[in-house]
Amino acid sequence: MNRRNVLKSLGLSIGAAVISTEALAHLGDNKYSYKIPENPLYGPMAKPVTAISIGAGNRGTVYGNFAAKFPEQLKIVGVAEPNQFRNDRHAQVHSISAENRFQTWEDVFKKPKFADAVIIATPDNMHFEPCMKALAMGYDILLEKPIAPTEKECRQILDMAHKTNRIVAVCHVLRYAPYFVKMKELIAQGAIGEVISVQHFEPIEHTHMAHSYVRGNWHNSKETTPIILAKSCHDLDIIKWVVNKPSQKIVAMGDLKWFKKENAPAGSTARCTDGCKVERECPYSAIKEYYERRNRNKVLDLPTDKSQQDAAIMERLKTTNYGRCVYRMENDQPDHYVTSIQFADSVTANFSMEAFTSYHDRRTRIMGSMGDMVGDMKELVVTDFRTRKSTTFVPRVEDVEGYKNSGHGGGDWLLVRDFVQAVAQQNPALLTSTIDESIESHVMGFMAEESRKKGKVMDIKMEKVKTPQGQPQALKS
Length: 477
Known about the structure:
By secondary structure, this protein is an alpha/beta fold. The chain has helices at residues 3-13, 58-69, 84-94, 105-108, 128-136, 151-164, 178-188, 206-214, 227-230, 233-243, 286-292, 309-319, 411-425, 435-454; strands at residues 22-26, 31-35, 49-54, 74-80, 101-102, 117-120, 140-143, 168-170, 195-203, 247-255, 336-343, 348-354, 363-368, 371-375, 380-384, 389-395, 458-459, 463-466, 472-476.
């Protein structure tokens, strides 16, 4: 089927909307696959953008791997990472010279500016200070979400970005996932008429919850950030981005129900390796998850020699939080969380984050005046009430090497690709997740957490402040 016939066929079922993404592969039965074409604003690069990785864990590695794959676009020239194993690994992958390897982020800024940008992929509670220092020294920034642990710090970063006229791209990678790009595009083109309401669901998956938010780095909200920001600011942001209307009110409920000492089974022990009598039947067994299934082992910093990995995994399970009983941690993150949002023009949205699922990947239902959408990140089904015909869109995704099924729908590297071009051209318009665009969904997250704790409906009042030139400068509530 040629392009003209594809567009004609699609037009019959989605209100004659023009498809700007490449929906050219006809899969039969009104089903089409598509990919996101290269941004027409991209330009040739005389040299790669240079960047310093501040944090070389999971996210720092994901973004760094883009540079390893596309060295003509991005070159990592420095690293700050206190974990020696990760520091060594990053330096080796990117051929970083000894004088540009640092243990702490503070050490990076003791040197004069030596790169175009910094990638901040430190723990959540360590975003603010390195970001502010980098901006003061004239770096552009790729900033892992959440922006900062408090609303005040988020706004200070926003103000500093405008004061220094630097680019700050927030890693709201779902905005770059082909699935959500198509969803937003179709809504903007009126494929389902006026949006009336949204239901969005994030199934974390039970073992992912145990790994990251019970045993892992984000297990305690007081030491990092609340789970609504640490995990689900992606979701609040994507709802806001797709609806494309100001948020007005938010209310939230949820709690930590299951991962508590009183629910520890009889015969369980402090660690799964301590002779726990129920380890074999426990769905959260660290031995089964990390040793037998070999899942989520990147955090264990295993040796590359596979003959040494068995012993290394068991040693980590005996000495780190990843081997501890999920019922005996110092965790406080809710394991179920529901949020309702009122947007302008009477649009409502419900968001549910749930730990206890056997699957992951977001699910979304969008109800419009002339049709609806139902999707699970693998497919997006659009039904037109007028014709009663449905069209299915299947995104073609290039996932990140070494991080298959990341849950981000291929958005990670598409974000980095746009960031590189934005820095090279000094044009933040190439990005859809600048700090200006991302700040409102963070405020929604802070308000949701306040609502959950206080049992109140919270007003969200966002007011744009204009510069003398009439450009957006800051947001105030």
